């Protein structure tokens, strides 16, 4: 293959994209601004630096994180190869020696005959075949150029409310209705509270512990643009009852009266397996979110598929800009990968890099690109970030809520997750066999 592929960023997504392209025989130029320039979060000069944690989450197949990693392994993931070589004891999780992991990845990348590493900051989006894997802390210069091609579709902060699984919502303490009966009757699930329930919840909310912010996260416009529910609550006892929890226009069919306060849940995907807590952007610690929000009767047994977060996170409005193969809709030889696409997490970013690199090769060969089935974890995430019906787009990590439900329904959670994983891997193998270009393990 004579054409050169330029990849911007040597984080987990960038190295995976480079590895896929190089292993397929393409010449790769991998651009990384370290060690000449560092983002506020990065400290070491090597590639695939793990900044916040050395844990790559659960390994067991009956977990969403474990399923994702197994799917990656079947694509020859460089990150999985290196992680398994420098694993440290962590129970059922895949934890690594961070420095050794980064060193091993860097060694494999720099020694590959088809990869040329160029240590310089990219300030313009190059012509030709390009994969942008610049990460959530892309430099200001590059972010400006990305913003130019994305229009208003580039976000600099991740202010997201929690998401819960539909099946974990206690519908005996909830009802479906739209405010003032405008819209469909099942547009929202409403979680009512009595005055006593609200006051208990409110007191817990204003005294709950917030997560610490890194220096690069501390920007006033995070809070002005989308105020955390706990900050809003601190302004007065009734502030959120006249804001996100306002009960006007709603009547609880159990009582025939308007509730004292109501949390509304909105569908997060078309299959209605995930619901967003409307207006509940938060910076509370994850354990505190579960403790406090579970005081709302309908959420007493809620399963949190994603906790609320608030931090610096450059990402594009992928549902309007990207195809399911991670290509840019306005330019077919430009792909995006990593957290900038709206996938959340180390391995999720790496997985998107695998698919961007894989599909770049397919595109250059004139072959149909691959979007994995929605029954797979990678396929479900790629479809989520490219689904135009997704409103108020926010990053998403691997969770079983993004997969279509399994029928017939399995009540036992462990058995259900095992069945979802089995179905996913079968669907993955079918896709791999059909494509006939992915090396089997």
Largest sheet geometry:
6 strands, mixed
Taken from the alpha-carbon principal axes, the silhouette is globular
Spans of 5+ residues with little confidence (pLDDT < 50)? Answer: 215-225
Spatial separation of the terminal alpha carbons: 24 Å
Q: How many domains make up the coordinates? A: 2
- What is the helical fraction, as a range of percent? 25-40%
Query: Secondary-structure element sequence?
Result: EHEEHHEEHEEHEEEEHHHEEHEEHEEHHH
Q: Can you walk me through this structure?
A:
This protein is an alpha+beta fold and 441 residues long. It folds into 2 domains: 4-160 and 312-435, FAD/NAD(P)-binding domain, CATH 3.50.50; 163-307, Elongation Factor Tu (Ef-tu), domain 3, CATH 2.40.30. It contains 13 helices and 17 strands. It has helices at residues 12-23, 64-73, 78-85, 98-110, 140-150, 195-207, 220-225, 229-233, 286-293, 318-321, 346-364, 377-385, 413-435, and strands at residues 4-8, 27-31, 55-58, 87-88, 93-96, 115-118, 129-132, 154-160, 163-165, 175-176, 188-193, 261-267, 274-277, 304-306, 309-316, 327-328, 331-336. A hairpin with a 6-residue loop joins strand 12 and strand 13. The longest helix has 23 residues, at 413-435. The protein is globular and about 70 Å long. Residues 215-225 have low confidence and may be disordered.
